[in-house]
Design brief:
The chain is mainly alpha-helical and 329 residues long. It has three domains: 155 residues, no CATH class; 42 residues, no CATH class; 98 residues, no CATH class. 60% of the residues lie in helices and 7% in strands. It contains twelve helices and four strands. It has a two-stranded antiparallel ribbon. A two-stranded antiparallel ribbon has the order 3-4. The radius of gyration is 43 Å and the shape is elongated. The chain binds zinc ion (2 copies). The site of one zinc ion has 7 residues, from loops. The site of one zinc ion (ZN) has 7 residues, from loops.
């Protein structure tokens, strides 16, 4: 009860602090691709503006899809931290169970191999027969006859009471000890969904704030994607050169002739490193042949940064930045 008493103010405090930061810091816990986010994207698509969905592979790692049934990359860190917290309990349980089993088997071996049984059997019989009918004979019979004894001793003994009597833990006991720890691990995994719920509850009470936050996230992602494309140009050119250099004619011939070997010889998108698919775009410039996956090709505004001259690119980048300025409202 005392524990519950301590728990209650703590959880209240934490929920108030979450609410405070939710309203005060627009970047705090603002990583959810909510329904409103999708609505903004849909609206922009209809207006013919740049859209974000579907997100690129690198972007997916930084956000959370609240309806996704699995634990996502950005939640993984929290989950791992929680699981690390349960690790000492889990280890202790394992050590205790192992120790119990080791002690049981040691004592059981001792009991089996130290069991001793004594069986002692002795008997003796002394009988003096004095024959005759004389007085002396009668006297002797009376005196010596008293010495006639017979005894039979039978002693059976074993050391059973001195041996250890170990009792093995049954399956029920193992279940009873393992169940709470299993429950703890399950709760750690479910915690990720609990964290998603915090945002839902806060959004329910502060719908205006939620809209502002989603808009901010959308614009931030738009900005990041535009910057990513521009900043990555040098890296893309390097990647394309790298990909072209070690490719021998033999590899190309094999790639064209042997469909079976293709999965191993597949070229990769110079931007995101995704393997080449039939939808991939291959630059038509004879010496370039850089590969782009469909979404990266759209991000590059359908201009190959590898073979397009720098001036032409920078002029197009200028027009891009004008377009990028039209953020979601
Ligand atoms: Zn790509
Ligand atoms: Zn090209």
């Amino acid at each position: 009860m005392a524990c519950m008493g301590n728990f209650q103010p703590l959880s209240t405090l934490r929920s108030f602090s979450y609410m405070d930061r939710y309203n005060g810091d627009i970047r705090f816990d603002n990583i959810y691709i909510s329904t409103y986010f999708c609505q903004i994207d849909e609206r922009r698509r209809k207006l013919g503006r740049r859209t974000l969905l579907p997100l690129r592979k690198a972007e997916k790692k930084t956000v959370i899809f609240p309806y996704g049934p699995t634990i996502q990359a950005s939640e993984m860190r929290n989950v791992v931290r929680e699981l690390m917290g349960t690790l000492p309990v889990l280890l202790l349980l394992l050590v205790l169970c192992g120790l119990d089993w080791a002690l049981y088997s040691t004592f059981d071996t001792i009991r089996h191999h130290s069991f001793l049984q004594y069986s002692f059997h002795s008997s003796h019989r002394l009988e003096v027969k004095v024959g005759g009918d004389s007085m002396l004979a009668r006297l002797l019979r009376k005196t010596v006859g008293a010495l006639n004894t017979s005894s039979e001793t039978m002693v059976e003994s074993n050391n059973m009471p001195c041996l250890p009597q170990p009792v093995c833990l049954n399956a029920r006991a193992y279940l009873r000890t393992g169940l709470p720890v299993g429950l703890l691990v399950c709760l750690c995994l479910l915690q990720a969904f609990g964290y998603r719920l915090r945002r839902v509850i806060a959004a329910f009470y502060f719908p205006k704030r939620e809209k502002k936050r989603v808009l901010f996230l959308y614009n931030e992602l738009l900005r990041k994607r535009a910057a990513f494309t521009k900043l990555r140009r040098a890296a893309i050119i390097r990647q394309a050169r790298q990909q072209r250099a070690p490719r021998h004619h033999l590899t190309d011939i094999l790639h064209h002739r042997c469909p079976l070997l293709r999965p191993w010889l597949r070229r990769r998108c110079v931007v995101c490193q995704a393997p080449e698919t039939p939808e991939s775009y291959v630059c038509l410039t004879p010496d370039c042949e850089a590969v782009y996956c469909r979404s990266c090709w759209d991000d590059m505004r359908q201009r190959c940064p590898v073979c397009t001259p720098r001036e032409e690119l920078s002029s197009s980048a200028c027009s891009d930045s004008n377009d990028d300025a039209t953020y979601a409202e």
